Please model this.
Amino acid sequence: MRKLILCAVLVACGGDDDNAACPTAQGPFAEGDLDGHAEPLGSGPSEARAGRIAAADLPVVPSGLVTWKAGDFVLANDKVALVIEDVGDSDLYDPWGGRPVGLARVVDGALVEPNNFGEFFILTGRSTVLSDSVTVLADGSDGGPAIVRARGKLHPVPFFEAILGAVFDDPWLDIDAAIDYELAPGAEHVDIRYRFASARDEVTALGSALHAFMFTARTPIYQPGRGFNDAIGGAPFIALVDDRATSWAYIPGDGEALGSSISVSGFVGAFSEGFDMPACDT
Model:
């Protein structure tokens, strides 16, 4: 059994240019190419690629529950692949596209042993990126990492409104954001960078961050030192284990631990330390 590791990092900034003035920070993040590499599953040992995946390249998942489809984006090297949903309406609890919808190992240019993937949320408080585009920033043809970006304004996730509205009262509707998924040649992990461009004229604190997962009964959660247990507490990472296929792990960025947790009906969430959203001139 091989696993794919997803590493989440928050990157707050004043736009693509760290020295941007406030008017510049108000603009959206840059887009990439609409299609990416024409052969995204053709990576050799020193390559990683990003592009749209064809229906013939999507293996059957025995449960029939995975929501990936032709035209979604795939990040792949010669070891692992992560599929990211295209922009538009989603069948998931996060309804806006631009999020992972499946993963698998790669053998001889084909996806094998696909994970019975559920869903995980990429959040700022109770909000996430309302994707207005999903594009390929780097298709890997230069020999470097392959990068897929989802960008848009932040917006509260409808599923969390009743649950977390009182905990996270700021909806962050004025913040431009981007989620960058990056896979390097030869790597068995994908770096996920969450970028913000704030037009606010003062620093705004987010007291805590929520790491959230849905449909965890499909791939039970394993914690180091605690075994299979949905009550996350102080874990440096969690693994979602699929004994019959590819498992994966989630590691929060900057050495954070996953703290106090919520667990109910297949939903698992864990809190960690928050961060300061910088002012526009930061």
Q: What stands out?
A: The two ends are 45 Å apart (CA to CA). The CA atoms of residues 2 and 33 lie 31 Å apart. Residues 3-277 form one domain.
